[in-house]
Amino acid sequence: MSAPPRVLTIAGSDSGGGAGIQADLKTTLALGAHGMSVVTAVTAQNSRGVQGAWEVPVEAVRAQYRSVVDDIGVQAVKTGMLASPSLVTAVAELLADGAAPVVVDPVSVSKHGDRLLADDALDAVRTRLLPLATVATPNLDEVAELTGVTVTDEPGLRRAAARLLSYGPRWVLVKGGHLPGEAVDLLTDGREEHWLRAPRHDNRHTHGTGCTLASAVAVGLARGLAVPEAVRGAKEYVTAAIAAGFALGSGIGPVDHGWRLRTGV
After folding, report:
1. Where does 6-257 sit in CATH, by number?
2. What is the pLDDT of residues 135-177, one digit of tens each?
3. Which residue range or ranges hold the Pyridoxamine kinase/Phosphomethylpyrimidine kinase domain (predicted)?
4. Torsion sign over Cα 127, 131, 132, 138
5. From CA 206, how far away is CA 63, in angstroms rounded?
6. Whether pLDDT at 35 is above 90
7. Which residues are catalytic?
């Protein structure tokens, strides 16, 4: 039997299982791909927040990457939590030698407001990582940190996208989930614009949304889809996962990565 599409996630571990490496691997499995991982950090994390975070040494990150890529190979890569300038730089150096499409989720703050990216790492993300991105998928908080653009309405999504594209990614998906009204995102490469709209679900259990969306995009790219088709499919998947999000612990629960298993869709 032939192997399914191979997707590599380079991100931090979420001990609560809702975001990070755990969300990435659940998403790739749910969408029929084979997920592999390079762990960049270990967090003590639950439904209430992040109680602690520890970086993995750069040499261990490099070794994990080479171990997977040199033997198994990858058809798409997704990056998530890269806490420090040294980690961002090391990952960028590794990706620069690869040919697989790269989805960059520039994680800086957790769902609970906990800091996951050092302030001095922002410049490395702008200058080293974003130029390698096939698609960058920032939310509005991450947009503000990377560009200084504060988005309060849909025209602001376009201004933010233009600033992000100046850093070199091929496409940017500016996620407008924090805006009022329906959940609207803008995907653009500076020439084409795709406005992706979905109903906003009345469900507070949305932990892992960003990781899940970026991983779903990576699966689409690993299947050979064009960026707009990969993003559109990912948006549909994560919208349903948000609708099915469930309570876990005493805080914010996760989206349901396995919603298709329970609905039969």
Report:
1. 3.40.1190.20
2. 999 999 999 999 999 999 889 999 999 999 999 999 999 998 7
3. 14-256
4. positive
5. 33
6. yes
7. 175, 206, 208-211
Per the CB < 8 A criterion, the answer to whether 116 and 81 are in contact is: yes
- DSSP per-residue letters across 107-151: --B-TTS-B-S-GGGHHHIIIIIGGG-SEE--BHHHHHHHH-PPP
Question: Global pTM?
Answer: 0.95
User: Which helix (DSSP H) or strand (DSSP E) does residue 78 occupy?
Assistant: strand 76-79
Read off the pLDDT of each residue in 18-43 and give the average, rounded to a whole number.
97
Give the pair of three-digit tokens for residue 65: 């990457």
Share of the chain above pLDDT 90, in %: 84
Q: Domain ranges for the chain, please list them.
A: 6-257
116-122-123 Cα angle (round to 5): 160
The residues near 1 (Cβ < 8 Å, ≥ 6 apart) are none
Q: Please, which pLDDT band fits residue 110 given cuts at 50, 70 and 90?
A: low
Contacts of 132 (CB under 8 A, 6+ apart): 92, 95, 96, 102, 104, 168, 169
Can you read off the two tokens belonging to residue 16? 């609560």
112: pLDDT strictly greater than 70: no
